[in-house]
Each structure stands twice: as C-alpha cells, then as structure tokens.
Amino acid sequence: MHDRITGRPSAHATLAFYDDQHPPAGDFLADVLDGFSRTPKQLTPIYFYDAKGSAIFDEITALPEYYVTRTELAILDTIGPELAALAGPGAVVIEPGSGSSVKIRKLLNALSEPAAYVGLDISGEHLEAACQEIAADYPALQVGAICADFTQGLDLSHLPLESGRRIIFFPGSTIGNFEPNGAHALLAGFRRAMRPGDAVLIGADRVKDPATLVAAYADAQGVTARFNLNLVERINRELGGTIDAGALSHEAVWNPDFNRIEMHLRADADQQFDVAGRTFQLREGESIHTENSHKFTPDSFTSLAKSVGFDVLHTWSDEAELFSLHWLEPSAKA
Ligand SMILES: C[S@@+](CC[C@H](N)C(=O)[O-])C[C@H]1O[C@@H](n2cnc3c(N)ncnc32)[C@H](O)[C@@H]1O
Questions:
Q1: Lowest mean pLDDT: which of 22-31, 44-53, 62-71?
Q2: Structural domain range at position 297
C-alpha cells in the first residue's frame, strides 16, 4: 500500500488502499477572507467538518427534531431487499462525503456479498478512522479510502478493486447544501466517473411545513447552534481570528423563494474583528450566512437529475413523505 503522490508506504494497514489526493487545505483562509468581504457576509459550509464539527454533527443526527437521519435510516431498512436486487452481487460501493460512515452499514448489510466499499471525504483523519472501523467489522469486504474534494469530480479510474457494479451512495441530503448550479455540477461530476451499469443512490430532503424544517435546524438543546458557532471558533483557532463568538446568535430560517433552510450567525451587537491581519466590522443585527439546505419535491429532484443526464428509476419515501431516496442511472439518451 503506497501513497499515490509520495510513493511512500502508508501506515493504513487495515485498508485495501488509502488514496490521498491532497485536496487543497490552504483555501480556508482565502475563502474566509473572501466570504467576509461580501455583502451579506457568508462562509462556506465545507469548513464545518473539522474533528469537532464532525463530532457535533454526529450529535445532531440523534436529535429528536432532526428527522433527516432516522427517516433515511428507516427507509434504507425498508428497501434493503429492493436495493440488493437492483445492485446485484459483488457491488462496489463508493460514498462521497462518507463522514462517520454510519448509514453505509445499512446498505452493506442489505446488499448481496458486496465486494468493496470506498469512503471518500475531505476530512482525512475522520475518514481513515471511519473506514478502518468498516474494514474491521466487514472482514470479507475490501475497504479503501480516498481523501479528496468531491466537488472536483470523482477520480475512480485507478481503484485497485474488482470491477463489480459501482454504486455511488450519497445520503444525508448533502446535495441540498449546493445552489442549483453547484448541485448540477456535482451530479455531472459523478456522472462522468460512471461506467455503463453503474448507479447513484442519493438522499434528498423534501419540502414540508416550515415549522418542522426550522425546528430541525434550530433544536431546543442548542446542538445545531454549537455546530454553527464552531465554524467561527475554527476561524479563531486556525486562522488567528478574533471573532467574539459569544456575541453571535444561531438562526435558522425558511426561504420559500429558493425552497431552502438558511443558517445564519446574527450579531447581537456591533463588533470589529481581525482575521490574518484583515479587519472586518459586523453591525448589530447583521448576519453571516453559513449554510443553505435546499429541499426538493419529487418533481424538482427529477428535473435536476434529468438535466444532468440521469433517469430516476426509483424513488422511495417514508409514510409521512419527509425524506426520499432516489436510484439514478445514466440515461440511455444522454
Ligand atoms: C453531513 S456529513 C455526511 C456523512 C454521511 N454521508 C451521512 O450521510 O451520514 C458530510 C461529510 O461530507 C464531507 N464533505 C463535505 N464537503 C466535502 C467535499 N467537498 N468533498 C469531500 N467531502 C466533503 C464532510 O467532511 C463530512 O464528513
């Protein structure tokens, strides 16, 4: 096992491979300075997931208000036999943005003798630990990890794996974090990496009553608030920022014009802060826009998929129609 770039033997002994594609790390500062220079101020959600942010996200998934994870898990339980039939034996499952790799267990347990699992995440430390746990728990499975930025397309050309049917598993409604153009570009990147017969299994959160949506992103225990505030605390920790996080309030609002929940950090009072020698002002009531979570109807999701050259062959939902999973295959016409 060797690092693809340095050629040195890697220490990731329990994984079939660890491919470090060295996603650029230096952009954090540039992106923060750019975001704080805009009106309104904004930050890129990709930076939520340092070790602390990933751990808080795991707490969010267990919150009573956060229906997303438990609903998606329940749908996966229900549709296991259908997924096994669709994927066939010996499937290779690739999970972009694998995080703590919890949902994947449902899929792996459902499939018939899957051949391999490949976790892909921008957060290398978290990725390696999560994939090693999968490798330990599924000894018959080849498990690999790719440290990469999935917005840059998927480079799967060199996977040292048996070539079964590849399933790209993209749960959690991560697709909803992208603006429509970005969601299109992301799915197009997946599409380009696919061979005939490959498929995408993707989770997408649904448009529903705003009160349920807002509660899911502004929980009573304040866990999502901690998650949101960790972003500015990370700027203070890693970029020497001087933001007074204690004078910012977490806010989740439903924006019906774009069918999305927006997360903001709103200033309780005027403050001035520095990041890497640059000074910024926040006025009382001004917000830093930190995340969008777009919601879909079956029709709006289908038109997104079609615009990229996918057919939506199956859509599964829970009874209350809170969340959907979709099975996409490259369209024969594309
Ligand atoms: C919300 S977690 C999802 C975890 C898991 N897939 C699930 O649904 O339970 C999102 C994960 O995506 C990763 N991520 C976010 N942006 C990414 C990017 N551009 N490239 C690769 N990974 C990314 C984060 O590091 C994080 O681990």
A1: 22-31
A2: 1-334
